Amino acid sequence: MYKIVAKQKLSPVIDYFRVNAPEIARKAQPGQFVIIRIDETGERIPLTLADWDSKEGTITLVAMQVGTSTKKLGCLSEGDTILNLVGPLGLPSHIEKYGTVICVGGGVGIAPIYPIARGLRNAGNKVISIIGARTKDLLFWEDKMRSVSNELIVITDDGSYARKGLVTEPLKEILEKDKTVGHVIAIGPAIMMKFCSMTTKPFNVPTTVSLNSIMVDGTGMCGCCRISIGDGTKFVCVDGPEFNGHEVDWDILFNRQRIYCDEEKRSLDAWHECHCQKA
Amino acid sequence: MEEKSKPKLNVNRVDMPRQDPKARGKNYKEVALGYTAAMAKEEASRCIQCPKRPCVAGCPVNVDIPEFIKALSQDKMTDAVKILKSKNSLPGVCGRVCPQESQCENVCTLGRKGAPVAIGRLERYVADWDLGNKMKAEKAKLPPPTGKKVAVIGTGPAGLTCAADLAKFGHKVSMFEALHVAGGVLMYGIPEFRLPKHIVQAEIDYVKSLGVEIRLDSVTGKLATIDELLKDSYDAVFLGTGAGLPMFLNIPGENLNGVYSANEFLTRINLMKAYLFPEYDTPIKIGKKVAVIGGGNVAMDSARCALRLGADEVYIIYRRSRAEMPARHEEAENAEEEGIIFKFLANPKKLIGNDRGWVTSMECDQMELGEPDASGRRRPIVKPGAEFTIDVDVVVVALGTTPNPLIASTTPGLETTKHGTVVADESTGKTVKDKVWAGGDIVTGAATVISAMGAGKRAAASIDAYLHGNK
Predict the structure, then answer these.
(1) How do residues B387-402 score in pLDDT, each as one tens digit?
(2) What pLDDT is stored for residue B8 in this prediction?
(3) Could you report the predicted ipTM of this complex, rounded to two decimals?
(4) Does A77 lie in the same domain as A176?
(5) Which residues of B touch A226 (CB under 8 A)?
(6) Domain with A58 in it: what CATH number?
(7) Å between A156 CA and nearest CA of chain B
(8) Residue A158 sits in the same domain as residue A77
(9) What are A101-143's pLDDT values in tens digits?
(10) Contact, B207 vs B164, CB < 8 A?
(11) Are residues A34 and A157 located together in one domain of the fold?
């Protein structure tokens, strides 16, 4: 059992948790993820680490309520416990001195890009960050991102806050102007990572994406998270979660993310029914 | 001179009742129902207590089979339990999933005249009696603590056996498990209808009752590494992490939706209880026409699970013929009775999908058998011009597994083979790395529960000897 020591609402549908997990906090590195199972009937879902504090013995998770598991998680409060929490899983981000690096965080992807940007900054890079959300309500951690970036660009799809547009627009502008950019890292919805990769391709700037596949065990056992990359198949859980965005077969990733679309609706309906009866 | 009267040979074994094939194809309850007391006693009385005792040598953990059968036949159930559990900490599991037909029963003296004694069924009966009596029969007397600590990585059959034996030697044992339940393949792999999970849990609880600590949610190598465990707290380490990595066919279309590894398919069902969706949150795609590729026990389990989920038609696609199939005869027979359709000498070469990325059909080569290969089985070769296509909406790939590289890749000084298995001495389980032993599928590649248990047992003895020499 893993106790939630702090909870905040970052938006009506995005929750922030600090969870007691000292062993994981001691080993965690940027880019890694954990698998959680909320209760006895729960599924195992991966969440990329948003932060950790080895002294306090906690890890930070940020999740958007989209399906049954993230809604169940959202119902938990400070003092409640998460039944199972395992990690840190996956390979850490490759942190080195590239010169100038662009970190793109879209939606809930802002959370995991934060420790990576911090790691890159600490490694001596000039970090330009672009964070974006569909609308103002879904945007969070602007200050935190500013604190680890040399330059921060904020953008919303609908223009309700800061610049209006998509993250790929400033990304392209910077790449056109600044020829010293050595690396781009993009984390967010799969479609955003695809378009970021397409944007950087003509500039030949190596681009890392952090893939959010469906997983069960998260340790290489089931192969549910497999993707096509280059000529081969890789498991996101053990070979990733970070990959070269220029090599990912995005169509297969999109398809595989939708495997349980119908079941997710059924599960959510069943949960709502049960949850509303309880309420 | 007094002449002993020769016991009358009974060459027919007592049948074990099973659920009706039609009914059981729709539920997850155990298929084999076990002996009644009367059946068990009758079957036990068939054992002639021959002096050679070939069955004991045929058992990878050397259970004193004639003794426990004799106790059973004399209604001394408590003794039967004690005898059985002194060598085997997981008798309820072994009585159900051991391939007795190729081990103890294969060498039974009675087998030369007729049917060998049904040792597995009797083992199961004794274990279930013990469980039914809340395991009061055997309170293991533990020796005084030695003060030595051993870390056992993985809580499958190899690890559990090694841990139980080490605890019985007086050592303090901590087990590390990556998943949220202990038991390894016994929990995530073998289905409820063949090995009920409450039986596995009861036997794990027995191991815990010996003083073994089990730490769940702990991925060794990601949390502490083997070197850190040895440096910080432990005098020795046993690696029993099994062969958890699924093999795929490497044919086009394998990443289409609806294509599962058997590991994923079975884990969703057994560990995550997807068959109870949406009561349980983990979903699974229920196919109408399901093809399971492979001919082992895991393939049989997958096919029978697919049927129970509600598939209309379930195929086993196997590239050799029935005679070469590695599955236990009993399991193939159970599958066939339940309506699984076997397609032999068929080798998938391509999976075809629709515009939404879902698998819709499978192209196969028709094979024929050529000369024997390295395994001694006749090698399947493509029959030219005889390919065929079958419609499928779920495909389960059950081609076997290899060890997870996580431990080897984070443990300098371990020797591994090109198949990813860890090199260890067969009789002791000792690896080339100081203070590290290994056993089970991580050493042999995917094999049986009982062979993993045998390896765990041998390693425990070797670790014990080492720890005593090291005092």
Answers:
(1) 999 999 999 999 999 9
(2) 67
(3) 0.94
(4) no
(5) 255
(6) 2.40.30.10
(7) 30
(8) no
(9) 999 999 999 999 999 999 999 999 999 999 999 999 999 999 9
(10) yes
(11) no
Please indicate, yes or no, if residue A262 is contained in any of the structural domains: no
Structural domain that includes position A59: 2-89
Mind telling me how many Å the CA of A159 is from chain B's nearest CA? 33
Q: Does residue A161 sit in the same domain as residue A249?
A: yes
Q: Which residue of B has its CA nearest to A38?
A: B281
Residues 152-211, chain B: which have Cβ within 8 Å of A? 178-180, 188
Same domain, A124 and A152: yes
Chain A, 81 to 120: residues with Cβ < 8 Å from chain B are: 83-89
| Boundary (domain end) residue, out of A61, A89, A117 | A89
Domains held by chain A: number: 2
Of residues A225 and A270, which shows the higher confidence score?
Answer: A225
Contacts of A36 in chain B (CB under 8 A): none
Which A residues in the span 260-279 are in contact with B, Cβ-Cβ below 8 Å?
A: 260, 263-264, 266-267, 269-271
Residues of chain A with Cβ-Cβ distance to B244 below 8 Å are 219-221
**Does residue A276 sit within a domain?**
no
Summarize pLDDT for A52-110 with one digit per residue, the tens. 999 999 999 999 999 999 999 999 999 999 999 999 999 999 999 999 999 999 999 99
Q: Does B357 touch chain A (CB under 8 A)?
A: yes
Q: Are residues A128 and A27 in the same domain?
A: no
Cβ within 8 Å, pair B245-A259: no
In a domain, A69, yes or no: yes
Tell me the average confidence (pLDDT) per consecutive run of 10 residues in chain B, 471 residues long: 58 90 90 94 94 94 95 94 92 92 93 92 95 73 92 96 95 97 95 94 93 96 95 95 92 96 97 94 95 96 96 96 91 94 96 96 95 85 93 96 90 92 95 96 91 94 90 42
**Cβ pair A259:B179 closer than 8 A:** no
**Is residue B75 less than 8 Å (CB to CB) from chain A?**
no
Residue A230 belongs to a domain? yes
Q: What is the DSSP string of chain A?
A: -EEEEEEEEEETTEEEEEEE-HHHHHH--TT-EEEEE-STTPPPEEEE--EEETTTTEEEEEEE--SHHHHHHHT--TT-EESEEEEEESPPP-----SEEEEEEEGGGHHHHHHHHHHHHHTT-EEEEEEEESSGGG---HHHHHHT-SEEEEEETTSSSSEES-THHHHHHHHHH-TTEEEEEEESSHHHHHHHHHHHGGGT--EEEE-----SSSSSSS-TTEEEETTEEEEHHHH-SEEETTTB-HHHHHHHHTTTHHHHHHHHHHHHHHHHHH-
Same domain, yes or no: A186 and A132: yes
Asked if residue A104 and residue A160 are part of one domain, the reply reads yes
Kindly determine whether residue A24 and residue B223, on different chains, have CB atoms separated by under 8 Å: yes
- Predicted TM-score (pTM) of the model is 0.93
Which CATH number is A116's domain given?
A: 3.40.50.80
